[in-house]
Amino acid sequence: MPAGSTSFYFRTRKALLQAVATRLTDLDVADFSLMTELAGSSSEQFSGTAGLARIVMYVNSEPWLTRARARYELMLLASRDTELATRLDESSDRLYTLAREVVTQWHAAGNTPDPTLVEDQALATLAFINGVMMTFVAGQPAVDNAEHLDRLIQGVIAGVAQVRGG
């Protein structure tokens, strides 16, 4: 590719990074929409903790692995660029919402859990799956299948409930 190709479309480095962040967010929105649709189906493989585990395992394969690498790079840059951080917030918010939904589904039907417990469980789940995804990005996967990851996610959720006495 000729040296000037990128600068023709994106005059500055910041404009290029914004465009990459926008594209990643668009792809994430499409993926999360599909996953939400699948989770709403009668298929158990895409609902609850099992569905979340399957989504996370996708990150260990292409094209999601390359996207995850780009996202982590952008997140590091976003700590110094509020516009970039704002652009990436939509994907983060959607993943957090998904974690909350999964945690809520984990609780027994008819049992309305304490909202602060759900928030703590969602935060712990999100931190855990972000760590798992980082191992994929680093090329040293911590888990190699969705079933194992599902058990670990359930353990994190149950562990927070145990610590909180819920």
Q: How would you describe what is shown here?
A:
By secondary structure, this protein is an all-alpha fold. Helix 4 packs across helix 5 (82-106). It contains seven helices and no strands.
**First-to-last CA distance:** 58 Å
Task: Give the amount of beta strand, in percent.
Answer: under 5%
How many β-strand stretches? 0
Compute the CA-based radius of gyration.
Answer: 18 Å
| Helicity, as a percent range | over 70%
In terms of structural class, how would the helical and strand content be classed?
A: mainly alpha
Whole-number mean pLDDT:
86
Helix and strand element order:
HHHHHHH
pLDDT < 50 stretches: none
Please count the helical segments: 7
What features would you highlight for this structure?
75% helix, 166 residues, mainly alpha, elongated
Compact summary:
This protein is mainly alpha-helical.
Could you outline the blueprint of secondary structure elements for this entry?
Elements: H1 5-9, H2 13-39, H3 48-58, H4 64-78, H5 82-106, H6 115-137, H7 146-164
Helix pairs in contact: 2-4, 2-5, 3-5, 3-7, 4-5, 4-6, 5-6, 6-7
